[in-house]
Specification:
The radius of gyration is 27 Å and the shape is globular. Helix content is 28%, strand content 22%.
Length: 743
């Protein structure tokens, strides 16, 4: 067995130690502080299961405790009190959800209250596919890895009484309700209810199914239940009112809110126990099959090697040379974060829950979920299209499945529910952008039909509230909505631009003309007094009084969602030349854009702003500002530390910004397949392309040895000088070599 693992290790990392594999540069602790909301637990590429340490419960973790503030992650790096390991989690999101099926190894007598059995921990290690720590109270070493649908843990117990608890009452989400059953001394199965992302739609709570298998036969097992505390006459007769009930040897189903199950052992010598937890959104039977198909006959170490091997295959799609080890760690960790969400929804057998009704359907490819599209339409899907086009194709197909099942494209879909979080109509942008970048193995006519429906349906339109005012006036008003009238208009404009570009490609000339008029309607909200966008009232008058700085830092603002006029005015990536003209020309545009940074109005953690540094490329002679600003932002906000993200990773959006920026390019205009160019962080970058979708198998990007903030003097594409600081997606994927010559 040792020989087999060694051979696998050599296949993964090669026989030379001179070149570290990409997987070795990843630091999963990046983003686990500063509200980055990532976690260091192991996960497979786009995995359903994720074994995360859970350290956000209990007063010991104040102020970053899950019920003391808005907290949307199971793990915070600076916290010290751990209450278990959750098996189903989200990465880089802004709302509490999941963080359930929490396992905890302990020693001694059974305790079921997490505040009593919780412990400090030490010796924390996190690598790709692997997490480990030591539970100080119990002297238990915990190790974890994962497959796509199974979390695998290895507990090294001391001699004596030892326990493994499965707590179904605790979770990051405050949704409650569960069922658990001890099947045998080596198996537990159950169901946990979750849902209500951002606490919007409690009626759409849904079940997660799991099966846990243990490598050692338990000496004793049981379940527990803590009922509600009752008041009144009958309660006086209940001596057990509100008290936990421990039921030893119980082997039937237990249903409730605060429930759990346990396995207990009595080891004569220190002993390791492996626990495998398979999960499913369809059924317990499927959870069991997922576990068996993905882990049966495989040891913890073999699964770990496979996990690292899979990650290395994906991360190696981009190779970088030169630059510091710190830069490589930041780069590959960012790429790692972009490969977590969207994640897998379907089981090993292809089954998944249908939108709304949750009846069981079956897919041939991967059915993806966690479509945080208001965030990811700006850069993440463009990265997937370039580097992982097969995945992006399946993501588009998943969106079309969602349309077939629910009647609408997704807005912010999560595990076959539509959360309707944030604003705009973003799925069409992603679909059009993918098609225009050469991903065409999906039903584009069906996609176009879906895009037109959300763009034109006046009544009961969940994707475009206020659409009648938008079509009649060209914009939403202060009467149409009490928050985000301007920024929502801008979002609709960007989608209409995407529809226009797809219509043009499909030779739908009348639609192209119609939507080309619609996508510039934001111009009616441009106020030359401020040289910024400004809300209008229903009668067409300007909102007064008006302070364009109102709305920053999540202050409610009638004109803008999570931002202000400074942070949104330049969010018209499809019409920068038009905005430039409104502002009075290139010089006025550049000065105003520079003001955003000089007045500290730029927010690196705010999606509408993240393309701003690249907009200087539209003003001839000002491209150096892009190079200088991007370099500054990378240095300031992206670091090899737990707080090494500017804020919420937004399911990989901030990480995708870093990946593109460090490669020297950025998809500045969604549904317009171009990249704005800047100085790369590495001497050599090799992007391996998929020949199924692109004419070449790789493109090589080089830059001379550079100094910080080194300016680009010229760009050569296959030896020919490039005019301007943009390159089309087509020319990028046709090129063999792109050279940046730096001053």
């Amino acid at each position: 067995m040792r020989l087999k693992i060694t051979l696998l290790f050599c296949l993964l990392f090669g026989t030379t130690f001179s070149q570290k594999a990409p997987v070795e540069y990843v630091n999963p602790f990046i983003g686990t502080s500063n509200f980055g909301t990532t976690n260091p637990g192991p996960i497979a590429v786009r995995g359903m299961a994720n074994v995360s340490p859970f350290n956000v419960a209990g007063a010991q973790n104040l102020p970053l405790e899950k019920d003391s503030r808005w907290l949307s992650t199971p793990y915070v790096n600076e916290n010290t009190f751990l209450t278990g390991f959750s098996h189903i989690n989200l990465s880089g999101v802004g709302c509490p959800e999941l963080g359930v099926v929490i396992a905890m190894p302990t020693t001694g007598a059974i305790k079921t209250n997490h505040l009593e059995y919780g412990t400090m921990y030490s010796n924390e290690i996190s690598k790709v596919g692997y997490y480990s720590n030591t539970l100080d109270k119990y002297n238990i070493k915990v190790e974890a890895t994962a497959t796509t649908r199974t979390g695998i843990s290895k507990y090294s117990f001391p001699a004596g009484k030892s326990n493994i608890l499965l707590n179904l009452g605790l979770g990051l989400t405050n949704e409650q309700g569960a069922q658990v059953k001890v099947v045998s001394p080596t198996e537990i199965e159950g169901i946990r209810s979750v849902g209500s992302f951002c606490y919007y739609k409690p009626e759409e709570a849904y079940p997660i199914y799991f099966v846990a298998k243990f490598s050692k036969v338990a000496k004793e097992f049981g379940v527990w239940k803590k009922p509600t505390t009752y008041r009144g006459a009958e309660a006086e007769w209940m001596e057990y009112n509100g008290k936990s009930r421990l039921m030893k040897g119980y082997s039937k189903e237990v249903v409730g809110d605060s429930i759990g199950a346990y396995m207990q052992y009595d080891f004569a010598v220190p002993t390791q126990v492996e626990m495998k937890v398979g999960v499913s959104y369809v059924s317990i039977e499927n959870a069991r099959e997922n576990l068996e198909k993905e882990t049966q006959g495989r040891t913890f170490d073999e699964i770990l090697i496979s996990a690292k091997n899979e990650w290395n295959q994906y991360l190696s799609k981009i190779e970088v040379e030169g630059g510091s080890d710190e830069d490589k760690t930041i780069f590959y960790t960012a790429l790692y974060h972009t490969l977590i969400h969207p994640s897998t929804l379907n089981d090993f057998n292809g089954e998944y829950p249908k939108m709304i009704t949750r009846e069981t359907l079956k897919t041939e490819g991967t059915r993806y979920t966690v479509f945080s599209l208001w965030d990811t339409y700006r850069n993440l899907h463009q990265l997937m299209s370039l580097v992982y086009p097969k995945q992006q194709s399946n993501m588009v197909k998943s969106m079309l499945q969602i349309y077939n099942e629910s009647g609408w494209l997704p807005k912010w879909e999560l595990n076959a529910t539509e959360t309707t979080t944030m604003v705009g109509d973003p799925a069409g942008i992603v679909i059009a952008d993918s098609y225009l970048r050469g991903i065409r193995d999906f039903n584009v006519e069906k996609a176009y039909e879906a895009m037109l429906k959300s763009a034109d349906q006046l009544e009961a339109n969940p994707l475009r509230p206020g659409i009648q005012d938008y079509i009649e006036k060209g914009y939403l008003t202060t009467k149409t909505t009490n928050s985000g009238s301007v920024s929502t208009t801008q979002e609709y404009n960007i989608t209409d631009f995407a529809i226009a570009q797809l219509a043009k490609e499909l030779d739908k000339k009348e639609d192209y003309k119609r939507f080309s008029k619609r996508f510039i309607s934001y111009r009616k909200l441009f106020d030359s007094e401020f040289n910024l966008l400004r809300p209008k009232n229903h009668d067409g008058s300007w909102l007064s009084p008006y302070n364009p700085e109102t709305g920053a830092n999540f202050e409610k603002n009638v004109g803008f969602i999570e931002g202000n006029a400074w942070q949104y005015t330049f969010m018209v990536p499809h019409d920068i030349k038009g905005l430039m003209k409104l502002m009075g020309g290139a010089k006025a545009f550049t000065n105003k854009l520079q003001d955003v940074f000089d007045r500290n109005q730029f927010d690196m953690a705010n999606e509408p702003d993240i393309a701003y540094p690249y907009l200087f490329n539209y003003a001839k002679g000002q491209e150096w500002r892009t190079q200088k600003k991007v370099s500054e932002l990378l240095k300031t906000y992206f670091k090899n530390t737990p707080d090494g993200l500017p804020g919420n990773d937004d399911t990989g959006t901030m990480s995708a910004w870093a990946v593109f920026s460090m490669m020297g390019m950025y998809p500045v205009s969604p549904a317009n397949p171009i990249y704005a160019l800047t100085s790369p962080k590495f001497d050599k970058i090799i992007i391996h392309l998929d020949p199924t979708y692109y004419p070449k198998d790789k493109v090589i990007i080089t830059s001379q040895t550079r100094k910080d903030n080194g300016k680009i003097s010229e760009i050569l594409i296959d030896g020919k000088k490039q005019n301007g600081f943009f390159i089309s997606h087509e020319n990028l994927t046709k090129a063999s070599k792109i050279e940046f010559v730096l001053e």
